[in-house]
């Protein structure tokens, strides 16, 4: 199967505008995530968001929380090919990491949510994820837990338990989930000892091979390269005349087109961050590739039509390992209790 | 259905020996849990145990950790009638709280595990819980995560990754999960303002009704009343000539007899702790009773053959609320990563 020509044209015209990679070619991760003007951060809001993020009672079975699939104790995902929601149901896409998701220009693999606030509402009612009948049901579940109301009041003012505020609080918490000070960041900031010789070779190979054309910017996700304000979308697989496409069943899912219905979006995907990529196996939208070295081989072939030497692959993998950052210490939240009754039916 | 006479005889003879309730009638929770001589506590062991406790990769699907059903962010359970393990499978018993489980004289509803070490191995291979094929498979999963080996070495010395040490570490962590300084504890220690007038009435009603005959000792679990070293087992339901037995299907499960195969153990159950009971709805071995007030009514009728007044029920519920203790602040563990590969098949 060949890539459709319109897809290639879209990509080619995008690539044409990419000689620079934002302000600097290699950028460190900022110490703070960008915060939208209409959802300012506050300690009360972050604490509420964290509590909701860990609360499995936001799912129909009381067993699946945001953290179940986007596990902040791990690399912000679940190390599964596709995630497992209520009743063991599985979807068809690999859970993207929540770490540094605040630096994405849009959310979900297909970018169908503009921001973290919009994203946060999705899994709650997805029938194979948290499976609440609707957001009203989720809000009822929150109201049934007496301890939440005062937390909403502290974060948003009185009478503020609502789906929008639930999403705002979760998004605010997620904006604290960033991992600065990776070896790469320390190198970029001037510590020339921070990377090994192999990692430096990998960094150069990553650039020379062209990976950086899409995986650009501080989060290596092309968020600096706007398309409709949603960051960079790329066709995947772009080159289809190779054994990987069938082996890993890459074209069973049409990507962004499944959300938009537009032919131009067929096989278009949001470029994912490479931050902490060493921790987020397995890889690709369907989680079909188990190892990072194979992921590098596949990307080089399907996106850049290149065969890398094994040395180059190893070097690039070493460099990607240098994108594992420092995970902030967090306290375990106490979820408000349900004194004397249960919300689980 | 009538209680079998041998059951009643067992209970009656137990009750005969219970005029005192340990050293003092009302006991505060100790600030430290008892620690067995062959598994001393250490910071490294506790940290390893906590990490394992939160690691869903100890389950066949990578989605269920100890914490999934015994959620320390909640009341140490999952607020479900019966827990939900891998693939949405359910067992037939309500998850006991992990909080203060170190004060139980034996573990599981039927006391089939002598201690926390033995208990910790059970759910890992239970096909409706974490569903690992066997403990060797679980240990292989741990070995596949490179970060665990040094943690075991720190806790137990070199070459120490084993099922026994996994269980020892988890048990050591669980011994830190205690909730002292409840209003009840403060009252018993001399703060006469710690309980409300209603709670004090409930405390007296709890004693007068006879609840304290079994729910004795600092954890209100009869652990001070030895039977084969396993604490107190009681027949439930003891009085069966009431509507509750059928309504809540109490006799579908034969309790301890299902583990021992002994007729004398039919419908015998370990007396559960009442610490934090206000947070652990629903109630009873099958989680069939949704509210604490109904649980009090049922217990009075099935175990003591008493009809409590609604005032007595409310007062006892208020007293039980005073058993909610202080939950220690904990840091969120970082689970060791799986760099460059995934263990999930």
From TrEMBL, chains A, B:
Binding annotation for heme c 1: 66, 69-70
Cofactor(s) required for function per UniProt: heme
Claim: Acyltransferase is one of the keywords in the record: no
Localization (cell): Periplasm
InterPro entries linked: Cyt_c-like_dom, Cyt_c-like_dom_sf, Cytochrome_c_Peroxidase/MauG, Di-haem_cyt_c_peroxidsae, MauG/Cytc_peroxidase
Start and end residues of each Cytochrome c domain: 44-153, 197-324
Single GO cellular component term: periplasmic space
Pfam families xref list: CCP_MauG
UniProt keywords, alphabetically: Electron transport, Heme, Iron, Metal-binding, Oxidoreductase, Periplasm, Peroxidase, Signal, Transport
Identification of the protein by name: Cytochrome-c peroxidase
Taxon lineage: Bacteria, Pseudomonadati, Pseudomonadota, Gammaproteobacteria, Thiohalobacterales
């Amino acid at each position: 199967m060949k890539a459709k020509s319109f897809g290639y044209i879209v990509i080619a015209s995008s690539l044409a505008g990419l000689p620079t990679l934002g302000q600097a070619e290699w950028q460190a991760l900022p110490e703070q995530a960008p915060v939208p003007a209409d959802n300012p951060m506050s300690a009360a809001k972050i604490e509420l968001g964290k509590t909701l993020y860990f609360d499995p009672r936001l799912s129909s079975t009381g067993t699946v929380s945001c953290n179940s699939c986007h596990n902040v104790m791990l690399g912000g995902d679940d190390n599964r090919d596709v995630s497992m929601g209520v009743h063991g149901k599985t979807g068809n896409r690999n859970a993207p990491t929540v770490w540094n998701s605040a630096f994405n220009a849009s959310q979900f693999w297909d970018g169908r949510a503009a921001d973290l606030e919009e994203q946060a509402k999705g899994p709650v009612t997805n029938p194979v994820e948290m499976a609440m009948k609707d957001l009203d049901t989720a809000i009822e579940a929150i109201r049934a837990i007496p301890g939440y109301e005062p937390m909403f009041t502290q974060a948003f003012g009185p009478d503020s338990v609502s789906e929008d505020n639930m999403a705002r609080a979760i998004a605010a918490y997620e904006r604290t989930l960033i991992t600065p000070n990776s070896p790469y960041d320390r190198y970029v900031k001037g510590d020339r000892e921070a990377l090994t010789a192999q990692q430096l070779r990998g960094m150069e190979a990553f650039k020379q091979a062209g990976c950086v054309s899409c995986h650009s910017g501080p989060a290596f996700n092309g968020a600096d390269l706007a398309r409709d304000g949603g960051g960079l979308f790329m066709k995947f697989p772009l080159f289809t005349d190779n054994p990987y496409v069938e082996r890993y069943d890459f074209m069973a899912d049409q990507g962004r087109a499944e959300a938009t219905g537009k032919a131009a979006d067929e096989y278009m995907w949001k470029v994912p961050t490479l931050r902490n990529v060493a921790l987020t196996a397995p890889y690709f939208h369907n989680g079909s590739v188990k190892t990072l070295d194979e992921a590098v081989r596949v990307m080089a072939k399907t996106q850049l039509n290149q065969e890398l030497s094994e040395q180059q692959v190893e070097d690039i993998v070493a460099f990607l390992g240098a994108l594992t950052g420092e995970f902030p210490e967090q306290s375990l939240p106490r979820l408000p209790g349900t004194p004397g009754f249960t919300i689980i039916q």
